[in-house]
Amino acid sequence: MVNITSKSQIYGYTLGVLLKTIIIMLFFSQPYLLLAQELHTRSNKALKAYNEAKTAYDFINYKEAEHYLLDAVKIDPGFIEAHLLLAELSKDILKYKQSAEAYHNLVLIDSTFFIPAWYGYGEVQFMLGNYIEAKNKFYIYLKLTDNKSVNAVRARKYIMDCDFALEAILKPVDFNPVSLGDAINTGDDEYWPAITADDNMLLFTRLSMIRPKNRMGKEFQEDFYYSYRIDGKWTKAINAGYPLNTSYNEGAQTLEAAGNYMYFTACNREDGKGGCDIYYSARTDNGWKKGININGPVNTPYWESQPSLTSDGLRLFFVSNRPGGQGGMDIWVSRLIKDGKWSEPVNLGDAINTPGDEMSPFIHFDGKTLYFSSNGRPCMGGFDIFMSQLQKDSTWAVPENLGYPINTQTDEIGMVINSSGEVAYFSSKINTLKGRDLYYFEMPESLRPDPVSYLKGKVLDKITGRELKATYELINLSSKRRVIQSFTDSDGNFLVCLPAGHNYGINVSSDGYLFYSENFMLEGEHSSFEPFEKIIRLSPISVGQQMSLHNVFFAFDSWKLREESLLELDKLYKLLEKTPGMVIEIGGHTDSSGSDEHNLVLSEKRAIVVREYLINRGLSPDRLKYKGYGEKVPLYDNTSEEGKRKNRRTDIRILKVSK
Fold first, then answer.
1. Contact present, 474 and 498 (Cβ < 8 Å)
2. Cα angle 551, 553, 558; round to 5
3. Quick one: fold of 451-540?
């Protein structure tokens, strides 16, 4: 798997800035190319071609520079400076075979003319996958140079990577990439895919040329495109359009599990805090909204990019070079707190981050399996993809390299895994006659995340059956933690990923309606294709309508409120506060256990406790009537434990609504 994404997405540079950086690095780090008084040629024709090449290189005209350098070494095969510049240029434009040949000719002429050439020679052999040859060149370089130099440290890392790669090649993993087809892929570059939990919506970045070659080279534009899978086939990709796409570059995105909103990277914007920042956009009936900078503490004057959102929407992983990390680019995580704000980010530590760079985190829908790219660990070369899982003690397991040929000698960045964990999506230039395209492959079983279950819901008006856009939240009743808080699409649909084997409370609300609450046990595995389904009907706020507070709990045979009830009572308080003209009756209900008299008293005292909670929060007692019904109004059969559990409830009935 090769060439996963563009430099602009990895480092946040525009193409022009990147090319200028290469020139500065080449010429100013190797001043002999500019300042040498005597070049090793007696041919005026070769010298003229060499100088023409340097001029073309200055103006980023690589093709012309290459042409002149090839002429120079053809005219004078002993022109060592021309071989060196040709080797460096060829490496920059990814012509590694040509670069290796130029380095070979250079060291044949004079093996000590420029010692760093051995390092460059080793690099291009490495990029060609010639690991034994690469090791040999790096060993020669180390014998000839200061072992404390930066490149000496890198050479030793390369040797370690060569050893790892040679061993990995002997134990290949299954890897059979398949193109996503012409509906997605074009002659332009497509990369950085994001997929929804149901595997039916794909969002990706396309790099298109907007201006042909001029003095400063070609100009390109990165924009978002999306496609839907219908009857097993992807529809023709559509530009997400303005205002999400702008004249700037957008990319490196992460989708909310249902595809209702996303976080993405944008660079060099007027409202940016640093070079690259993370932005938020929501999807509406009319398309995607304008991206909003999420600001601090996530965004800083440094570089923040490549967000990945957990399926519950509560944790945001991203990459930054801010102070306090382990190396250059590190992976950090922030948690969603009150009012939609993000907490102070925390570095994932040396279990994940290294003195090198870590990139493109992808936290799977299971919320604990992290895939990411790193060049700081033993790898096949460049950035390799690793996986790690969050342990029960909140530490990360030792990262595992995904192996060859998923990882190769070039950069692997930007892979995502579908919700089932069975399929991975990535970008590659497998077909060299086309641009970079999107592919998928079946994940080897040993590299898959843990299975998760899916809850699929649809929200309707209880009276008319009309589809409603609503907000929803799920609470793990065992841990008393809110695990998901989000909103449906405009048709009232939502899909969430949940670990099985837990009791959950669900609350759904929409403006102008009573909220819905229920608790349920999610048992067994429910795939995104066969999810645990719920139809939720909301009652409009009008006299006579009622709702059951299924997530208000009391101690056994008591009217003492349990702590996990407070989240739901808080929602009831906020509803009443927002609707000051509403008067309600709080009705207490029990199952059939115990005597009629006992159940009547118990249910009334439970209703009184709920009323007192609301009064203590500041609501007028005149708005809060109460009544105990005992076992007289069952909703389910009291002959089963499940029926009894559902009959033990607190109901809210609207008595009056005034403006």
1. yes
2. 165
3. Immunoglobulin-like (2.60.40)
CB neighbours (10 Å) of residue 345? Answer: 24
Q: Which amino acid is at 165?
A: A
Q: What is the mean pLDDT of each run of 10 residues along the chain (659 residues)?
A: 42 35 41 55 95 92 95 96 96 94 96 95 94 97 89 94 95 93 93 92 89 57 94 95 91 92 93 93 92 96 96 93 92 89 96 95 94 94 92 94 91 90 89 80 92 85 95 83 83 82 85 90 62 89 93 91 90 94 96 92 96 96 96 90 89 93
Residues 104, 382: Cα–Cα separation, whole Å: 23
Helix (H, G, I), strand (E, B) or coil at 152: helix
Chain position carrying tokens 């530590």: 349
Domain 178-447: give its CATH code.
2.120.10.30
* Nearest-angstrom CA–CA distance, 531 and 196: 14
> Residue 4, SS3?
coil
CATH class of the domain at 547-659: alpha beta
Q: Shortest CA distance to 203 belongs to which of 245, 141, 247?
A: 245
Backbone angles phi and psi of 247, in degrees to 5: -75, -10
Domain boundary assignment for the chain? 7-169, 178-447, 451-540, 547-659
What does the DSSP 8-state code read for residue 623? Answer: G
How far is residue 461's CA from residue 647's CA, in Å, rounded to a whole number? 24
If you count them, how many residues does the chain have? 659
Do 183 and 234 touch, CB atoms closer than 8 A?
yes
Q: Which amino acid is at 125?
A: Q
What's the pTM value of the predicted model, to 2 decimals? 0.78
Residue with tokens 């020669």: 140
**Paired strand residues for 497:** 454
